[in-house]
Amino acid sequence: MSGPQRSGAVAEFTEQDVGDFFDQTTQTYLSFWDSEGVLHTGYFADGDDGEDADEDYAAAATRTSDLIAAEAGIDSSSLVLDVGCGCGNFLFHLARQIGCRGAGLDLSIERIKFARQRQVELGEVAIGNIEFRHGSATRMPFEPARFSHVVSQDALFLVPDKPLSHAEIYRVLRPGGVLAFSDFLQPTKDIGPRARKHVYDRVRWNGGYSLVDYQVALARAGFEIVLARDLGSHIKKTYRVLGRTAIERAETTPDKAARDWMLAFAESCGEIQIAIDQGEFGWGIFVARKPRPGRR
To answer: Would you say residue 132 lies in a domain?
Structure first.
């Protein structure tokens, strides 16, 4: 099977549903996860080894960005598109650390507004060569063969028409260009009602690929697969750390609505860890290349 997997009576969420959800929750996530817009899964130094080991979420999130950049081979000459750029932090990090230029695309106008505002507020020369666009991964507002690299962190899984997004990424990449991204996985077709509620429907996710099926889908779009790696232990630790943080902050939050949201999120974090243990949810990193003419 190379298409996204579904099971049972599954809601068919649209791109509008996804965009609306993230528009409505942007400020809540910023107030809880990170006020600067870091909203990505962390790559922990020790994976999921032990309750008292590495639990620095911010450092782990930065490590994910560094891992993708290194595997992609991004350098100062690169022109990078971040699909599902959210609040822009991945591109800011790449520009500061590597000196590349870039563009960010996201379905959520609220996250694009945040990214643009933060870019102005920071006023850094290093991030001046970044543009942010509101739009869809299935109808990208960019000319063909514009980018040397396309990257993404935990965003492509939400696209309802995944094959069309792969075709669009292929279109905007230069020949020889690299696609490098992390994404959430659906390792099995059969998803129970608890995982469907707390993992899938919670973020307007219809269904996704397994690690193997993702590679098949990318190859079908014309890509050469360079790397596919399972990162399941790291995602479990991300939600364990965030669940604990939510409970701690709920205890000191005077606003009842915010407190109730944090406690509900903490509950979902627990359910997500169960879904991971049951093989209903996963995380992986992929690197693929658009062949040069004559190599396909």
So the answer is: yes
What would the mean pLDDT of 198-225 be, rounded to a whole number? Answer: 97
Q: Which amino acid belongs to residue 230? A: D
Angstrom distance (rounded) from CA 116 to CA 85: 12
Mean pLDDT of the chain: 91
* 174 part of a folded domain: yes
Q: How far apart are CA 2 and CA 37, in angstroms?
A: 33
Q: Give the bridge partners for 152, in sequence order.
A: 181
Residue 178 is assigned to a structural domain of this protein: yes
* pLDDT computed for residue 240 by the predictor: 92
How do residues 56-71 score in pLDDT, each as one tens digit? 888 999 999 999 999 9
Mind listing the pLDDT tens digit for each residue in 127-140? 999 999 999 999 99
C-alpha–C-alpha distance, residues 163 and 74, integer Å: 25
| Rounded CA separation 148/127 (Å) | 18
Of 161, 158, 156, whose CA–CA distance to 179 is shortest?
156
Which run of H or E residues covers position 66? helix 57-72
Q: Which domain holds residue 261?
A: 15-289
Tell me, yes or no, if the pTM score tops 0.85.
yes
- Closest to 147 (Cα-Cα) out of 163, 133, 164: 133
Burial class (CB in 10 A: 0-12, 13-18, 19+), 286: buried
- The CATH number of whichever domain residue 213 belongs to comes to 3.40.50.150
**Placement of tokens 């492509």 in the chain:** 156
DSSP percent split of the chain into helix, strand, coil, nearest 5? 45, 20, 35
Buried b (16+ CB within 10 A) or exposed e, 210-222: bbebbbebbeebe
The answer to whether the CB of 281 falls within 8 A of the CB of 184 is: yes
